[in-house]
Amino acid sequence: MFGGIAGFIAVGICIAMLVAGDRAAKRRKKAFWDRYGSFEGFRGQVDAGRIQGVRRARGDVAAIKAVREEYPGVSLVMAKRYVDELPV
Length: 88
Description:
This protein is mainly α. It is 84% helix and 0% strand.
């Protein structure tokens, strides 16, 4: 009987975490679009020379990290897209 209750509580906690995570993701996405308007708007604000320098010196992962550190509201997907689209 105790195992059933513990399992039920664990499922409830997992559902609550999923809902909270989904809400946070939606807030971050809305903040990105409110701030930049589009991916092109975001791209126009990034210091491409600095990110290219990081990419050349330390690689793609470091460049993505640099984008996310400088622009905290940017998702991993958007930062990766930005770095991938930079000229080599």
